[in-house]
Amino acid sequence: MKNILTQFSRIFVGILFIISGLIKLNDPVGFSYKLAEYFGETVLNLPFFIPYALAIAVLIVIFETVLGVMLLIGFKRKFTVWSLLLMIVFFTFLTFYSAYFNKVTDCGCFGDALKLTPWQSFTKDVVLLVFILILFLNQKLIKPLFSNKIQNIIALIAVGLCAFMGYWVLNHLPLKDFRAYKVGTNIQKGMEIPDGAPKSVVEMVFIYKVNGVDKQFKEADLMNIPQGATFVDRIDKVITEGYKPPIHDFSMEKDGADHKDEFLQEPKLLVFVSYDLAISDPKGMAQLEKLNNEAKAKGYKVIGMTASLEDEIAKAKKTFGLTFDYYFCDATTLKTIERANPSVVVLENGTIKQKVHFNDISKLNLQ
């Protein structure tokens, strides 16, 4: 019975780690955004790690995937099981902290392929912890499947393939796009809220300073606020989250007006997406004006979208000789639309027809 439970745990944990690792390895940039949230002041308060979030993300997902392979083939069982245990203990603590204090709304465990609430993420980690503890207590039952030479070869192949996959998606695009803005998506439909969709239940909480101390009062308690109390703030506390459309916070703003309704009706619209012009890749930016002219000659409306301020826009235009206009959109939304900075998106009446990394501009098929 003990052996059966151990072997089941070995297969379950190994496969889950491989699947989770490959999903994140498909989009390491997206996972790095999630790590940056955890490194921020509201969770781990380790802001000095934020500039290295992408490198850390790549290393973590490669290590996670390879650990799954090593567990399945029984390679270096002591190192493998100890590594699994330390990882799951750390992430169980992290997901509990995040869920209890409501710091990060999605752990990013399975990227955009499967969204988990904070408490679902914590529950998943607790279940994994149980299975990994079974492996830890029964390490001697984890037997290698092959000879040492073959085990070494398999492990090296796993590392090499993961490294190549990471390199490829960082220099092109995710192999599989799980995001709300994947090719074929109609942005207008993605923003629609169906009739009868559940609405959020919000409780208003009022904060008053009473004898020098901030105290919270619910709406029903407002008649009982002590005399001399001073109003400080009002917080809208979400009790139940309502329906949120897959696409939200999408805008194309300029000079105080949102032009998305106009542009999403364009039969030929080419968009240069650069969420932050200050850190956009110069190699990519240098190609945009040439593509702008080629697209306009074929009847395209060409615009840029960024979350950068006017001074950064003016600087980029001057540096790279850009003649198209930039429109504002939330940085998180732009990061969701595309991972490269810059990247190119082609729309037809609001439907995404093509998306390319700046390294693949030559592959665009402009009709």
TrEMBL record:
Stretches that traverse the bilayer: 7-26, 46-72, 79-101, 121-138, 150-170
Membrane topology: Multi-pass membrane protein
KW Transferase (keyword) present: no
One Pfam entry name: MauE
Subcellular location per the Swiss-Prot or TrEMBL entry: Membrane
One annotated Gene Ontology cellular component of this protein: membrane
UniProt entry keywords in alphabetical sequence: Membrane, Transmembrane, Transmembrane helix
Entry keyword Membrane: yes
InterPro entries xref list: Methylamine_util_MauE (IPR009908)
Domain of life: Bacteria
GO BP: any one term: methylamine metabolic process
Annotated ranges, domain Methylamine utilisation protein MauE: 3-137
NCBIfam families named in the record: BT_3928_fam (NF045576)
Protein name: DoxX protein
